[in-house]
Amino acid sequence: MLKVLIVDDEYIVRRGLRKIVPWEKLEVVIAGEAECVDDAVDIAFKVYPDIVICDIRLPGGEGFVLIDEIRKIVPWVQFIMITAHSDKQYMLKAIYMGVCDYLFKPAKVEDIKEAVMRAREKVTAYHNKMKKDQSYQKFIQENLDVLRENFLRNLLLETAQEEKALEDGSALKLYLKGPYYRVLRLTVKAEELYEAEQLVSSFLEPWSPAIVQPEDNERNFAVLLNSSDENDEKIILEQLSSVRIEQIQISAICDKLSDLAKEYRLLQGVKQVGMEQGHHQMGQSDTELQQIKETLYEAVKYHDSMEEIKRLFHQYMICAKEKEVPEEEIVIQSRNMVDTIRILTGVPGGRREVEANLHEIYQEFSDLCNQVQEGKKYLLDDISGKALYFIKKRYMEDLSLEQIAAELFMSSSYLSRIIKERTGHGFGYWLNYYRIEAAKKKLSNPEKSIEEVASECGYHSYRIFSENFRKYTGKTASTWRLDKQ
């Protein structure tokens, strides 16, 4: 269903529009309300409205200012202006700016319905044209991460149409073939969010995970899983047992994507299924063992000596035996610890089947430590280091992974894997990171407009720049600029 944003400084007007118009019959849903320009723009960033119904005169600027700002975010948006002002200059300007309809207060319900239907037709026509346009595919490729994130967020927060969800997911190169689906809701410390996302993505690779942050906080994220087994809940929890997660909630199995929103709402509000830190699940309940693991991971992250890391690993195994933890559980926990260390240090190598005994696990751990120690000697010459240098120096260009791979005389797929394994993040993350870092510096110059800064940092779309700036800094570019003045 298309989304409508209502903007009017009078509550009674907003309430009236909400109540008297049969929105559901028009196949649209009210996605938000605002009483001023700034609030409307903030909401537009979150919901991407297809239709905006607004007054001409609003706190914080005229409705025409709002048109400019929201069109930078949502190019296909259609505006319906409902106003008490009959000034011809306003009407002419509205026509010039391509407003879909211009109605006078008090507007009749039938007039509003007809205006909404015309706006729907224009939005639909825009999308149909874009799908046929070759530039549409280019747009998808250039903005794949943001588009995937929006798609997954909508999938979990709104009831989706099954066929359309599968079609859109396929266009965004997401694996959504099921035959069953689960959604996890994970809670972590805010400062450990990105690291947790990378570890979860690696450990749940057999389920083709798709990770998204559908909620407006820095501690929760969701993972959409494809499943071939209706009874894989325990296996999933075992795979995550070595990741530092404060709470894991796991949904019931679904055979339709359209059921995921309902399941996620249950996880948010009612259903507390799964494992909290402290609940007995593969040895996580023991505080002392958990503390040793956390100390070990900190030692790896902050490059402590290999002797200290080996001591902590050995201490964990001895402590687990003293507490009479079953050997099978010790093997699984140790196996996951080795894999976590491998990911944190960037040493290549994927997850393997659980070894039959602790001796083999410990031998692999020792080999891994030797690899880490050897790798430190060549860190400056590392392929990923050279790739990051290229990105940092050429972030303002239309830079692609293929270009950098050609410079380093290797395939783009191999380079992509090396960057991800070595740094924990992909090419797209680092390109946006260096662009946003540059933008933060350029915003200190008050003579440059935000659009100019975005362009100089390699963004051709103001909306995509704004999305990424918020994602990496937690603020809008304009708020960042004001805070630094």
UniProtKB/TrEMBL annotation:
Domain of life per record: Bacteria
Q: Which residues carry this modification: 4-aspartylphosphate?
A: D55
Q: Where is the Response regulatory domain?
A: 3-120
Q: One short Pfam family name for this protein?
A: HTH_18
Q: Which UniProt keywords apply?
A: DNA-binding, Phosphoprotein, Transcription, Transcription regulation
Cite the GO molecular-function annotations of the record: DNA-binding transcription factor activity; sequence-specific DNA binding
Q: What does this protein do?
A: May play the central regulatory role in sporulation. It may be an element of the effector pathway responsible for the activation of sporulation genes in response to nutritional stress. Spo0A may act in concert with spo0H (a sigma factor) to control the expression of some genes that are critical to the sporulation process.
Q: What is this protein called?
A: Stage 0 sporulation protein A homolog
Native organism taxonomy: Bacteria, Bacillati, Bacillota, Clostridia, Lachnospirales
